[in-house]
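Retro notes (design track)

What went well: tokenization of the new backbones is finally stable.
What didn't: we kept losing track of which sequence belonged to which structure.
Fix going forward: every design gets posted as structure first, then sequence, in one message. First example under the new rule, 242 residues:
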């Protein structure tokens, strides 16, 4: 192993933003440990995949054990795995709540706790978490209070951990996306979703990837919630026909 070759862990890495992140880090010559429930092995010897439920503590154990056994270090953790389900608050079920908490909060807890343990010993490292701009600017047309409850907690934890670990040489940031073109959103919904952004378009996976890569290289930036949302967090706008 090259001592200078960095290692990134990406959660929710089988599709969408996670798959884009996995490829982007490889393009930068990082080795990658990629995890999701459904991820399959890949031919690239510098990418190791770990299947598992992000909300289960043993998934984090296996991911970090694999990273150290295969690559010997961890430089970046991307907490990308997340659940999003828009529905009126009163219609969320107990199962919906449990799924949100497990994926969005418990997964973050287990993965980030292990990452910070290793990174603080190394004296360097970066954790970046994907949140949502609905935390800052809720929309009446997209009722998603459980997203705000869970992702808002991640934004607050990002700032708290940035302060706690600043002197350990470890940075903690977040990217707050608008609505991104991923398999989660069917093409027939794209026009309506684009109209929810002041810039009049949905985000691309590359928009989020670029933001994560910027933060990963920004050595004097920590505790930042970087909005990549076509202007959503800046304020309200008129939707044509509304």
């Amino acid at each position: 192993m090259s001592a200078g070759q960095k290692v990134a862990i990406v959660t929710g890495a089988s599709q969408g933003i996670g798959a884009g992140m996995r490829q982007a880090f490889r393009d930068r010559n990082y080795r990658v440990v990629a995890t999701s429930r459904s991820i399959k092995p890949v031919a690239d010897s510098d990418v190791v995949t770990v299947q598992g439920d992000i909300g289960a503590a043993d998934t984090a154990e296996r991911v970090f054990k694999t990273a150290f056994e295969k690559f010997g270090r961890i430089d970046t953790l991307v907490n990308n795995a997340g659940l999003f389900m828009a529905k009126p608050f009163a219609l969320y079920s107990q199962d919906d709540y449990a799924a949100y908490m497990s994926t969005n909060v418990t997964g973050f807890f287990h993965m980030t706790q292990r990452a910070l343990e290793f990174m603080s010993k190394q004296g360097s490292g970066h954790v970046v978490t994907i949140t949502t701009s609905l935390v800052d600017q809720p929309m009446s047309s997209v009722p998603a209070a459980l997203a705000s409850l869970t992702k808002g907690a991640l934004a607050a934890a990002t700032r708290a951990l940035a302060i706690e670990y600043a002197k350990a040489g470890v940075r903690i940031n977040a990217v707050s996306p608008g609505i991104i073109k991923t398999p989660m959103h069917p093409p027939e919904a794209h026009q309506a979703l684009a109209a929810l952004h002041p810039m009049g378009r949905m985000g691309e996976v590359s928009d989020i990837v670029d933001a994560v890569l910027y933060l990963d290289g920004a050595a004097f930036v920590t505790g930042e919630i970087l909005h990549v949302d076509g202007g959503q967090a800046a304020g309200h706008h008129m939707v044509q026909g509304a």
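Added context from the reviewer: Helices lie at 16-27, 57-71, 94-122, 145-165, 190-194, 205-217.
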